[in-house]
Write a structure and sequence with these properties.
CATH superfamily of the largest domain: Alanine racemase
Family: Belongs to the alanine racemase family.
Number of helices: 12
EC number: 5.1.1.1
Strand content: 15-25%
Catalytic activity: L-alanine = D-alanine
CATH class of the largest domain: Alpha Beta
Structural class: alpha/beta
Bound molecules: pyridoxal-5'-phosphate
Largest sheet: 8 strands, mixed
Pathway: Amino-acid biosynthesis; D-alanine biosynthesis; D-alanine from L-alanine: step 1/1
Number of domains: 2
Shape: elongated
Keywords: Isomerase, Pyridoxal phosphate
Number of strands: 18
Length: 358
């Protein structure tokens, strides 16, 4: 059996959720969109079911997967509905939905629900991606309130740069949101992971942590005590010695500058390991730090074993997890941990959960 696998530590997931909730106060929606950032939405939601106040996903299809798996907690559709036809399903599955543009408002006004909807009204406080303009927020709230189709309205916004603690724009967004919603009743929700960890002024009734649940700190300079959830690992399946000057792999990107012992590892970009990772990207072999050398191919990659004489055939290779930070790999590869985690595929997923195995 191919040894490539993703180990998902559901105890760590719960630890991170609890940490987010206590740092923020109030309640927290666990964001499990995009298959829980690649970790498996159903497994993650079940693991959090005893703790989480609710879940957030991108779209109806993701919510339906959770409902079909027996998740009964509130589930928020972060992008709301894409067409009026989805409103029946929203009602049937008791989903909460974001309303972020006028067309969604019209769909709700024209709907005939048997029970009122729960809506999160999104205000654009400066990210300029989704949400009602600050000056349009009160009127949108009024229409939702008056249409008779909605019971609760939570007010929300989303930050563009909360992971940059020294940048003023998050404070500006908070102030704009507060001004736009002053005097309107209802709960508030501002903080994503970076807002939870770095912006106490954004802590209101509901947090919406995503990436931090999976143990990748959006501000890695601070040690916030998060635990990595996914370990992406495989094994050395062959070993070869290179003489000085010999090339390695596609494009001969790497040339041996000294006699080099190369470990061939069953992991490639078809598994989600980034092809853009350069020579020198950290990996760990049998718990010892070393480096990627040579271009990552579809099913295999190569690592430097020169300094690790005890390592060889069958050695365990960690691509990211507790020994190798996914943030560090992402930085080297010119991307973010979010993208690496979402991209993991083909490998076997194995779950650890002390509550289930106990
Ligand atoms: C994805 C998302 C989040 C979670 O963001 P993280 O940076 O992963 O914590 C929160 N709110 C909204 C609206 C989102 O789309």
């Amino acid at each position: 059996m191919r040894p490539a696998r993703a180990l998902v530590d559901l105890d760590a997931l719960r630890h991170n959720y609890r940490l987010a909730r206590s740092r923020h106060g109030g309640q927290a929606l666990a964001v499990v969109k995009a298959n829980a950032y690649g970790h498996g939405a159903v497994r993650c939601a079940h693991a959090l079911a005893g703790d989480a106040d609710g879940f957030a996903v991108a779209c109806l299809e993701e919510a339906q997967e959770l409902r079909a798996a027996g998740i009964t907690a509130p589930i928020l559709l972060l992008e709301g509905v894409f067409e009026a036809g989805e409103l029946d399903a929203v009602e049937r599955d008791s989903l909460w939905m974001v309303v972020h543009h006028p067309e969604q408002l019209r769909m709700i006004e024209q709907a005939r629900p048997a029970r009122p909807y729960t809506v999160w009204l999104k205000v654009n406080s400066g990210m300029n991606r989704a949400g009602f303009a600050p000056e349009a927020a009160a009127a949108a709230w009024q229409r939702l309130n008056d249409c008779g189709k909605v019971d609760e309205i939570t007010l929300m916004t989303h930050f563009a740069r909360a992971d940059e603690p020294q940048v003023i724009s998050t404070a500006t967004q908070i102030a704009r949101f507060d001004a736009a919603t002053a005097g309107l009743p209802g709960a508030r929700s501002l903080a994503n992971s970076a807002g939870v960890l770095g912006w106490p002024g954004a802590h209101r009734d509901w947090a919406r942590p995503g990436i931090l649940l999976y143990g990748a700190d959006p501000m890695p300079a601070a040690d916030n005590g998060l635990q990595p959830v996914m370990t992406l690992e495989s094994r050395v399946m062959a070993v070869r010695e290179l003489d000085v000057g010999e090339p390695l792999g596609y494009g001969a990107r790497f040339h041996a500058e000294r006699p080099t012992r190369v470990g061939l590892v069953a992991m490639g970009y078809a598994d989600g390991y980034p092809r853009s990772a350069p020579d020198g990207t950290p990996v760990s072999v049998d718990g010892q730090p070393t480096r990627l050398i040579g271009r990552v191919s579809m099913d295999m990659l190569t690592v430097d074993l020169t300094e690790l004489p005890a390592a060889g055939l069958g050695s365990r290779v960690e691509l990211w997890g507790r020994e190798v930070s996914v943030n560090e790999v992402a930085k080297r590869a010119g991307t973010i941990a979010y993208e690496l985690l979402c991209n993991v595929k083909r490998v076997r997923f194995e779950y650890r959960d002390s509550l289930r195995n106990a």
